[in-house]
Amino acid sequence: MFNKNNIYIGLGIGVLIPLTTFILLYFLFGQLESAGMASGQGFSSSFRQRTLAIVAICLNIIPFNIYQKRRFTQSMRGLSIATVLYAIIWLAYFGRQIL
Q1: Would you call 46 helix, strand, or coil by DSSP?
Q2: pTM here?
Q3: How far is CA 56 from the centre of its chain?
Q4: Which of 77, 51, 47 is closest to 64 using CA atoms?
Q5: What is the number of structural domains in the chain?
Q6: Where are the alpha helices (DSSP H) in 1-99?
Q7: Is residue 9 a contact partner of residue 66, using CB atoms and an 8 Å limit?
Q8: Long-range contacts made by residues 58-65, C-beta under 8 angstroms, separation at least 24?
Q9: Series of mean pLDDT values for 10-residue runs along the chain (99 residues)
Q10: Within 10 A of 11 (CB to CB), how many other CB atoms are there?
């Protein structure tokens, strides 16, 4: 998967990594909260969603670094497109709460 220099591979990885990471982390924190090991007390109502989403988006740095070392510019381009689109969606969804 990381051995091809293709914009569509980079785009697919750039979409799937944040999406699956967000779902897994959201489920994990939900389970921790129901077990009494984590709490959302004292934070804004969307703090967990905002934070998990930005962490998931930032995880695109790992495959980006792998592609950069291999000089796979097309895959890096696809990954960058997906990351920028996620960042725009994040800002449109949570921007009013922050600003």
Answers
A1: coil
A2: 0.86
A3: 2
A4: 77
A5: 1
A6: 7-34, 47-58, 61-70, 73-98
A7: no
A8: 59/17, 59/18, 59/21, 60/14, 60/17, 60/18, 60/86, 62/17, 63/2, 63/10, 63/13, 63/14, 63/17
A9: 86 97 93 80 78 96 95 96 97 86
A10: 19
68/63 Cα distance (integer angstroms): 8
Q: Which two tokens stand for residue 41?
A: 């007390």
- Tell me whether residue 1 is in a domain: no
47 token code pair: 């703090």
Domain that holds residue 55: 7-98
Given a contact cutoff of 8 angstroms between Cβ atoms, the answer to whether 18 and 37 are in contact is no
Q: What is the mean pLDDT of the chain?
A: 90
